[in-house]
């Protein structure tokens, strides 16, 4: 950090977060310590504890910033007429973000107690909305919840595996194969109305149920319960 940071009026919190992110990018998790962060951000040790509680709190805050940056890459996507292709684009952005920010992605992927950062919650909602569009098109063969969980688990696992590979041995086709395997598992080539099957039909109806006006609230709740039972993984 140089004098320009202070001239720009950056707060101690902003300097600490920026310094931690930079240390992560340059040297990985091992490069981040109270001493190195304080030196880079030009603050005293008590400042970190006052603002973040401890180093765990600091890393959680950095992860939250990472989720925000990741979400910004998603919100720039313009939906197309093909929701499955949009899911492919979202998967590729996810993997690309992880490979471009490996140390940050590892911190973001760590299990942590307590409430998830709002940006992480918003990211999950973005994925759920993408899955919902596929269901509304009649092309989802499993429940929306199961589809979202599978995409999230496979996408994260694929990204972590690629990060763990040495750069000269990294296999870019691994992501493509994993992506297509997931898409094959959760989608159909044609709308459910063109291919028989109660689960696909129930998923499609479940997705558009909130748009109906012919049913009372009680009737909608009952129909939703029936559809959920049809699309349940236990079926």
What can you tell me about this protein's structure?
The protein has 235 residues and is an all-alpha fold. The chain is built from twelve helices and no strands. Helix 6 packs parallel to helix 9 and helix 9 runs antiparallel to helix 10. The chain starts with a helix and ends with a helix.
Distance between the ends:
58 Å
pLDDT < 50 runs, ≥5 residues: 192-196
Order of SSEs: HHHHHHHHHHHH
Shape: elongated
| Structural class estimated from helices and strands | mainly alpha
Number of DSSP helical runs: 12
CATH topology tier name of the largest domain? Tetracycline Repressor, domain 2
Quote the beta fraction: under 5%
**CATH class category name of the largest domain:** Mainly Alpha
What level of helicity do the residues show? Answer: 55-70%
Rounded mean pLDDT is 86
Query: Domains counted in the coordinates: how many?
Result: 2
Number of strands: 0
Gyration radius (Cα, Å) is 22 Å
Largest sheet: none
By CATH, the architecture of the largest domain is named: Orthogonal Bundle
Keywords: DNA-binding
Protein name: TetR/AcrR family transcriptional regulator
DNA-binding region: 33-52
Domain HTH tetR-type: 10-70
